[in-house]
Amino acid sequence: MQLPYGWLKELVAFDWSPEELASRLTLCGTAAAASRFSDNGYGNIVVGSITELETIKGSDHLKKALVDIGEGKTVPVVCGAPNAARGQKVVLAQVGAVLSSGMEIKKVTLRGVESYGMICSERELGLTDDHSGIMVLPDDAPVANKAGEYLGVDDYVLKFDLTPNRPDSLSAIGVARDIACLAGNKIKRPSYDLKESSYKASDAVKISIADPGACPRYAARVIKGVKIGPSPWWIKAKLILCGIRPISNVVDITNLVMLELGHPLHAFDYRQFAKKEVLVRRAAEGEKFTTLDGKEHTLTPEVLLITDGDKGVAAAGVMGGLHSEVSESTTDILLESAYFDSITIRKSRMKLGMTSESSLRFEKGADPNIIPEAVNRAAYLIQKYAGGEIYQGIVDCYPRKIEPMVIDLRPSRTNKILGTEIARERMQSILEGLEFRVTVKGDDSLTVAVPTFRPDITREIDLIEEIARIEGYDKIPAADRNIGPLFTSILSDDRLRQEIRNIMTAQGYDEICGSGLADPMMLEKVSPGAGQVRIINPIAEDFSVLQNTIIYSLLRAVSNNFAQRNLDIRIFEIGRIFIPQEKGAPLEIEQLGLALSGRTDDQWYGKGREHDFYGIKGAIEALTEQLNIKVDYRPQTYPIMEDGGAFELKIGEKAVGMAGQIKPPLARAFDVKQGIYIAVLDFGELLKNRQRGIAYRPLPRYPAAPRDIAIVVDETVKAGDIIDLIKKTGGPLLERVELFDLYRGKQIGEGKKSLAFALSYRSNERSLESSEVSELHGKIASMLKEHFKSEVREG
């Protein structure tokens, strides 16, 4: 969802810039980002008036227009629009202006006539797709004014990334409510003043609901004698800034009110109803219904239908029907304002295979008690801008009223959970600012009536979260002072995720967030033979299954970067994979994935080099060292990784992941023509084995005794096995062992290698005698000779 900054300023008073507003909303749980509606702005684009218009010789459509731009200035412009006429108020892009497409307006000569600008269509201004002619403004449009300001589109737009539990934020009023609470002001709600006729709406339509569980409330107004036409520009501008295409005055008004109040509405051509009634019922098995997009559907009882007592006229809460849509010939309107069960709408939408702005809001949870306000507001605007006679009253079928939920809130427990000292009066002020009804009940209790536009709030802890987000999460002290469930996840897996992010970004890795969706054919190449979980209603075939390994997401990201010529890549992702089960839901596993490709950065002391396996191994070691986890690398063979360059990662004897180089054919399948190194770790195992805290160990008081040892072994012997035997034999007096040299050559024979290790002996209680160090060192040499059947040199 997106809303214009100017609209929010209309609804509530505040002094914050668009960027600061977005930041404040994000900090209170309503994530937002602000950006200009038009990247290029509307500089040098003004309102003008065509004072003269004459045909250009040799052209059948080009004309020379003189455009008055105020202060006695006129600009000659060549125009080919068929609807251009003398006396029109138009939008002129002058020389130097940059249009939404990025095209810069320059002085040109066409058919020997100099042109100093362009008279713009709506598409050239980035407003709509209409390019049939120039945009003609009302006669009272003020010449010389900046066109962007006059049209109301030279504005910032706030784009929201809302969580599923905040349906109240899916409207301008909903967002303004949070702003008002943060700013300590009141919302200026839109007003309306209906002028009803003497005819009663209840005489014109009868409403009945066959399934009150699926449709707890259905209300409607009747408006007759409307004239369908274009909307006034202020309505068009708001819709355009919200990303919705204007259609006609009646349809635009229903969309405007939905964006304004958060409640979906639908306008029917009432003359198309076979009977003057509305029956809300389940569809019959196999019943046919054609939606507004012209697609015929075969329905099942999962779909809730709005009918005219006989045939379907709308799929409730999802989309209207083709045969009852508002058209240019429509004169009589049945204006629907209803409340539908969220689960019912979700099932209907999935069965129909479509999503709409209405279904989005009903699925998240609409407000059953805003219905009269929404239908009255829309009826008022329709009468104002489309004319018509509003019949008296709302026909409202509401079998069982939905009342606000009442919850007791204990301020003392709120402060105990949050670790704060917020006064009871402040808590009451916050909740009332969010339009909750609050009464004081004793010294340590508030009784809170939760408005029906907040279906997400059902418990005391939900109210505590409301207080926390408005008061400011930054004012809540460190988690060890809190006791409540709000912070238990932060103390475990959420905190580990953040710690991993900090460690990986410090290593120069960028985090990615994949969708978890995959192309089944490409996923089979990444994890051949593994089961796949298919989505019932995929948006496209290449997003039709859930990934069963995070390697897929990493390879897609590397591929996308490579396509954009970003060849040096270091990325990581913490994401979920899905493994199908014989029975029940698929198994969800959280994984940490790392990917490395390209070259290291150039440094002041030299050029960068190609990434290799040791680069990704170093990142894993930096991570596990800070988490106090010991991970072993065991050579392994994987179908998608290079032989000899792949390792199984283990914590003790438990396999927790893999690392290695992706085979070139698989890399090329993702259109990558350079080496890709991948590592995957099981997040759950990291969480289980992560050791908290750093143990203090005092500096040694006694000197160390260094020794070296070298052993010639078969090429197949692992250095790690040698180190393990040295540590086991050396016992507590062996402080450190490190590999410092590897040699292969003719002197030791083919298939052999020489490994040299530096050993350090030390005691924390006393100085070691040279003789006991030599004895222990000799014992290590003997064990190596015996175990590996090879030559050992001591030093």
Protein model, in words:
The chain has 795 residues and is an alpha+beta fold. 27% of the residues lie in helices and 28% in strands. The chain has 21 helices and 41 strands. The strands form ten sheets. A seven-stranded mixed β-sheet has the order 28-32-33-37-36-35-34. Strand 20 and strand 21 form a beta hairpin. Helix 6 packs across helix 7, helix 8 runs antiparallel to helix 9 and helix 20 packs across helix 21. The radius of gyration is 35 Å and the shape is elongated. The model is unreliable at 480-491 (pLDDT under 50).
Rg result: 35 Å
The separation of the N and C termini measures 72 Å
What's the story with the biggest beta sheet?
A: 7 strands, mixed
Low-confidence stretches: 480-491
Q: Give helix % range.
A: 25-40%
Overall strand count = 41
Overall, the morphology is elongated
Number of helices: 21
Structural class: alpha+beta
Physical arrangement of strands within the biggest beta sheet: 28-32-33-37-36-35-34
Q: Mean pLDDT score, rounded?
A: 92
Percentage of residues in strands: 25-35%
Give the SSE layout.
Layout (H helix, E strand, L loop, with lengths): L1 E3 H7 L6 H10 L4 E5 L8 E11 L7 E8 L2 E7 L9 E6 L13 E3 L2 E3 L1 E3 L16 E2 L9 H5 L4 E5 L11 H12 L12 E5 H4 L1 E4 L7 E8 L8 H9 L7 H13 L4 E4 L7 E6 L5 E3 L5 E3 L5 E4 L4 E4 L3 E2 L11 E8 L2 H11 L4 H8 L6 H16 L2 E4 L2 E3 L7 E5 L1 H8 L5 H10 L3 E4 L5 E5 L9 H12 L21 H14 L3 E2 L5 E2 L1 H7 L6 E2 L10 E2 L3 H14 L5 E11 L7 E11 L15 H14 L5 E4 L5 E11 L2 E9 L1 H6 L6 E7 H7 L15 E10 L4 H12 L3 E10 L8 E10 L8 H19 L3 E3 L1
Parallel strand pairs: 12-23, 13-16, 28-32
Antiparallel strand pairs: 1-11, 2-11, 3-4, 3-6, 4-5, 6-9, 6-10, 7-8, 14-22, 14-23, 14-24, 15-22, 16-19, 17-18, 19-20, 20-21, 25-27, 26-27, 29-31, 30-31, 32-33, 33-37, 34-35, 35-36, 36-37, 38-40, 38-41, 39-40
Helix pairs in contact: 6-7, 7-10, 8-9, 20-21
